[in-house]
Amino acid sequence: MKPLAAPRGKSGGPQAPPPRHVAIIMDGNGRWAKARFLPRIAGHKQGVEAVRRVSRAARKLGIEVLTLYAFSSENWRRPEEEVRDLMGLLRHFLGSELDELVSEGVKLRVIGDWRRLSPDLVAMIDGAIARTVNNPGPTLVIALNYGAQAEILAAARTLAEQARDGTLDPAAIDEARFEATLETADLPPLDLLIRTSGEQRLSNFLLWQAAYAELLFVDTLWPDFDEETLEQAIDQFGRRQRRFGGL
Ligand code: FPP
Q1: 104, 136 Cβ separation under 8 angstroms
Q2: For 2, 18, 58, 177, which has the most beta carbons within 10 A of its beta carbon?
Q3: In the β-sheet with 65-72, what is the strand arrangement from edge to edge?
Q4: How far is the CA of 47 from the centre of ligand 1 (A)?
Q5: Is the peptide bond before 3 cis (omega within 30 degrees of 0)?
Q6: What are the tens digits of pLDDT across the range 60-119?
Q7: What is the pTM assigned to this prediction?
């Protein structure tokens, strides 16, 4: 039988398969609120609505893993009241969304130093993860108190300890070994990293994992991000030619 021709992208090259793993730096909540003369918390509240919308849309579009940057290890520098509000929204999100995640078969994962959050939130997250652990997926990963440099340092430290204890030959430390020591070890490779609100930086998010990801910076403020914006992003991804260092 004659093999089917590979689908062609608009640029003429082979069309990229849809992304399995999409990550989003959800930026612009504050500006969304400011433009409406509202307090920043109002922007974060709308940001949570966008989280609901977009996680549903990602499931509909068949994305296996959606990783959302909800709170960075640098976000502690924000005013105490804003940090408290963000933690409150997270509690509310977990409380109100968990039943749907369970019934939709979503596996919830959290990356970052989240065990240093307040004990009640840690208990809530532990409970939420436990309720979804046997779900088939897709997977929703929330990055909380996350910093990529800290994640990479923790992996380096683990490997150094194994080498010191004689259980690991330093010569055996290669990319695969290192990757297997990161928090994202069992997730598919990151295909597409989106940042909203027009800013163009990675802000210490998934630095190792982004090595071969397609980067997409969109002007939409996070509270305005919806199914259509996600579809457009997936469409743009489909038109990129991924070469992974080859030709
Ligand atoms: C960036 O906007 C957004 C954040 C620092 C927090 C993102 C959090 C949420 C969307 C809500 C909580 C998440 C979950 C998963 C329930 P910004 O405040 O930096 O906006 P600005 O740059 O316009 O000021």
Answers
A1: no
A2: 58
A3: 107-111, 139-146, 65-72, 21-25, 192-195, 214-217
A4: 6
A5: no
A6: 999 999 999 999 999 999 999 999 999 999 999 999 999 999 999 999 999 999 999 999
A7: 0.93
| pLDDT band per the 50, 70, 90 thresholds, residue 4 | very low
Taking alpha carbons only, the member of 198, 238, 179 closest to residue 214 is: 238
Residue closest to 219 by CA, chosen among 240, 200, 238, 192? 200
CA of 229 to the centre of ligand 1 (A): 17
Going from N- to C-terminal start, the domains of the chain cover 21-148+192-239
Residue whose pair of structure tokens reads 């909380």 in the numeric block? 144
In the residue annotation, 75 being an active-site residue is answered as: yes
Per-residue buried b or exposed e for 189-201, using 16+ beta carbons within 10 Å of the residue's own CB: ebbbbbbbbeeee
Tell me, yes or no, if 145 is annotated catalytic: no
Instruction: Convert the pLDDT of each residue in 173-212 to its tens digit.
Output: 999 999 999 999 999 999 999 999 999 999 999 999 999 9
CATH homologous superfamily of 21-148+192-239: Decaprenyl diphosphate synthase-like (3.40.1180.10)
Q: How confident is the model at residue 14 (pLDDT cuts 50, 70, 90)?
A: low
**What is the rounded CA–CA span in Å between residue 74 and residue 95?**
25
